[in-house]
Design a protein that fits this description.
- There is one protein chain.
- The chain is built from 13 helices and twelve strands.
- About 35% of the residues lie in helices and about 15% in strands.
- α2 (about 20-25) packs parallel to α12 (about 290-305) and α6 packs across α8.
C-alpha cells in the first residue's frame, strides 16, 4: 500500500529525527508530494491529497481550517513527545489517528536520570562544587552509596517506569508515588512518605493543571538529611521559591535540576549560585542522533498501520488526559 504523505516540522530538526534510513523506511509506504517544509509553508493544494502527515517538533496544529483543507488525512506520525501542540477537539472528533514517539524520547531521559541518581547517592556533585569553590577536596561524609539506599520516583509513566527498570540492576530500594499505576518490585507510597524516606527523589510526572506546583516547600523540607532532589521532568512541578528557601535553610540537601520554571532561570536567580544546586540545560531528552530513535519508531508504526496491526504508540483523547 502506498499512501500520500508530507514531512512538516521545524526544518532544523528534520534530519535529526528523520535521517536517511528512517526516510527510506517511511517512503516504502509513502508517496512524498513535496520537500520537507515548515507548517507555515503548507497550502490547501498540498493538504488536499495528504493521507499521512509525518511530523515532529513544529508540527501544524490540526484546527478546523487545517482539517477542512486535509479531507483525506488519516494518520499523524508525531516523532516527538507530547502531542498537545498539534491535536485539537476537532481532530479528535474527525477521528484522525496520531502516534507519538514519547517512548523513544523516554530512553535518554531514563539514562540521564539513572546517572544523576547514582552520582547523587555518592554525593558527587556536592564534592565537585566544593572542590571548585574552595580549592580543596572536602572530607567524605554522609554519602549513602547505592547498596540499600532508597530511591523515590514521582510518577510511573514512561520515564518513571524506565528509570525503575534500570534501577533494578542496582542494590537500591525503589519506591514510587503514582495514584494510577504500580510496578512489581516498586513499593507504592504516598507523596509525603516518599519525600520523607528517600535518599534521592527523582521527578517524572507530566506537567498538567493538577500537577503544577505539586512538589511543595513542605515536601522538600521534609526530606531526610543529605537527600537529593533530581528533576528531569518539568520545572513547573516544583514550587521553585519554596525550593530555594529550603536549600538556603538546609545546606545538607541538594538539587540536580535539568529543568526549571522559567527555563532557563531568570538572570540573577539564586539557582545559579547556591552551593547545593547543579543546573543543566535540559539535557535529559533526546539530543542529536538520539532523535533518530523517534523517526525509527514512527517508521515502525507506519509499517504496523499499513499491515492493519495495532499501533503500539497511539495516543487517544482519553489517554492524553494523563499524559504531558
Amino acid at each position: 500500500m502506498t499512501l500520500n504523505g508530507l514531512y512538516v516540522m521545524h526544518l532544523h530538526r528534520f534530519d535529526d529525527v528523520y535521517g536517511p534510513l528512517e526516510r527510506q523506511a517511511l517512503e516504502r509506504h509513502l508517496r512524498i508530494a513535496a520537500p520537507p517544509m515548515e507548517a507555515e509553508q503548507l497550502t490547501p493544494e498540498l493538504l488536499a491529497e495528504v493521507e499521512v502527515l509525518v511530523t515532529s517538533w513544529g508540527g501544524p496544529r490540526m484546527d478546523a481550517a487545517f482539517l477542512a483543507a486535509a479531507p483525506r488525512l488519516r494518520l499523524v506520525l508525531y516523532g516527538a513527545g507530547s502531542v498537545r501542540p498539534v491535536v485539537t477537539p476537532e481532530s479528535w472528533a474527525r477521528g484522525v489517528r496520531i502516534v507519538s514517539a514519547a517512548a523513544a524520547n523516554a530512553i535518554p531521559v531514563t539514562e540521564f536520570a539513572l546517572a544523576q541518581i547514582l552520582m547523587s547517592l555518592k554525593q558527587v556533585w556536592r564534592h565537585l562544587l566544593h572542590a571548585r569553590s574552595e580549592g580543596s577536596l572536602p572530607r567524605r561524609a554522609n554519602e549513602a552509596g547505592a547498596n540499600g539506599s532508597v530511591v523515590g520516583l514521582v510518577s510511573l509513566g514512561a520515564t518513571g517506569r524506565g528509570t525503575a527498570e534500570r534501577l533494578a540492576c542496582h542494590d537500591v530500594v525503589v519506591q514510587a508515588y503514582d495514584p494510577f499505576t504500580t510496578i512489581d518490585g516498586v513499593r507504592p507510597v504516598s507523596l509525603e512518605e516518599l519525600f520523607a524516606t528517600s535518599d534521592v527523589v527523582s521527578l517524572h510526572a507530566p506537567l498538567l493543571e493538577q500537577t503544577r506546583g505539586m512538589i511543595t516547600r513542605e515536601l522538600i523540607a521534609s526530606m531526610r538529611p543529605y537527600a537529593t532532589l533530581v528533576n528531569t521532568a518539568r520545572g513547573g512541578l516544583v514550587d521553585e521559591a519554596g525550593l530555594i528557601e529550603v536549600l538556603r535553610e538546609r545546606p545538607d540537601l541538594f538539587a540536580v535540576l535539568d529543568v526549571t520554571d522559567p527555563e532557563p532561570p531568570v538572570p540573577g536567580s539564586p539557582l545559579y549560585t547556591l552551593p547545593n544546586v547543579v543546573l543543566t540545560p535540559h539535557l535529559a531528552g533526546s539530543l542529536g542522533t538520539e532523535r533518530r530513535r523517534q523517526g525509527r519508531m514512527m517508521a515502525e508504526e507506519l509499517e504496523r498501520y499499513v499491515a492493519g496491526e495495532p499501533l503500539l504508540h497511539e495516543i487517544t483523547e482519553k489517554r492524553l488526559e494523563l499524559l504531558a
